[in-house]
Write a structure and sequence with these properties.
This protein has 289 residues and is mostly helical. It is built from 17 helices and no strands. About 4% of the residues have low confidence.
Length: 289
């Protein structure tokens, strides 16, 4: 991680993730330094994380300063504003009676409960992804497991968790089971269907990849993600005529979508139809200008 921050000194993310890592390791000064470097590079989550670091180490003035800064930067994110504002409002309680200041926020039952109420289900996903970044797969699995067990309607979380399990060779069947159950629990949600389609394509189960998307496509023919996924399934099966039909149909519904143009360019190029490929390449270039 230190190497990645050296490789791209303009990116805040390596610094921010190092701050998280040092915080977990209770290396206060190192975490402080990394968060401040990330903040200089305009990383908004680092402001909140630095505020929490100060909060947990009883530096309430600094915690209040960075929480206020964080609130001021949250233009449209009501939940994040509410979360940080509540923390600011809680600080005077600690200042009046320093003995009740917890070592960590989670050690104060009232505050922790309130933060859990304010927090969205996104929290477990964020923690899981952070541990992925620092290559702590065991902790990543712990939080993805929480998503699976407690958040069956959290579609983004289910998809993120299944993608994690797909990277673990021993968990491929588990990943498929998660997605199939989520598809049932969420009444055939097309985002989940697309993820399951991707799983089947990787597993070379092309008939399953096609079937899982047919109903979604009939209901949402203007959904670019669904159309491209279904077209890909037909391509993999060798049904090029049907793939072309799907790709062309979505092109007429979303002519300025770069992913659609890129897919058509690649499709015709791979099938040695260079003139048609060139047509879509030129359209793509025009969009990019």
């Amino acid at each position: 991680m230190n190497e990645s921050s050296k490789a791209d000194p303009t990116s805040p993310y390596p610094y921010s993730h190092l701050g998280i890592l040092y915080s977990d390791l209770k290396q206060y000064s190192s975490a402080l330094e990394k968060y401040k470097q990330a903040i200089k590079l305009k990383d908004l989550p680092a402001i909140y994380n630095l505020a929490i670091l100060y909060f947990n180490n009883k530096h309430m003035d600094s915690a209040s300063h960075y929480l206020t800064l964080y609130v001021n930067h949250q233009k449209n994110n009501t939940k994040e504003k509410q979360r940080a504002t509540y923390l600011i409002s809680y600080i005077p309680n600690f200042l009046r009676n320093p003995k009740i200041v917890p070592i960590r926020i989670a050690d104060d039952t009232t505050l922790h409960k309130k933060l859990l109420e304010i927090d969205t289900l996104q929290s477990n996903i964020n923690l899981a992804k952070r541990y992925q970044v620092v290559n702590n797969q065991a902790m990543a699995k712990k939080y993805f497991d929480k998503v699976i067990m407690k958040e069956k309607n959290n579609i983004e979380g289910i998809i993120a968790a299944s993608e994690f399990y797909l990277t673990q060779k021993n968990n491929l069947q588990y990943a498929e089971g998660i997605l199939k159950k989520a598809l049932t629990d969420n009444y055939g949600d097309c985002k989940i269907a697309v993820s399951l389609n991707e799983f089947y394509i990787k597993a070379k189960r092309y008939d399953d990849a096609e079937k899982i998307l047919l109903s979604c496509y009939e209901e949402q023919k203007s959904n670019v993600e669904v159309a491209l996924a279904l077209g890909t399934a037909y391509e993999k099966k060798g049904n090029l005529r049907e793939a072309e039909r799907i790709y062309t149909a979505i092109y007429y519904r979303a002519r300025t979508n770069k992913n659609v143009l890129q897919k058509l360019y690649e499709f015709y190029l791979s099938n040695y139809q260079n003139r048609k490929a060139e047509t879509y390449r030129l359209e793509l270039e025009q969009l990019r200008q």
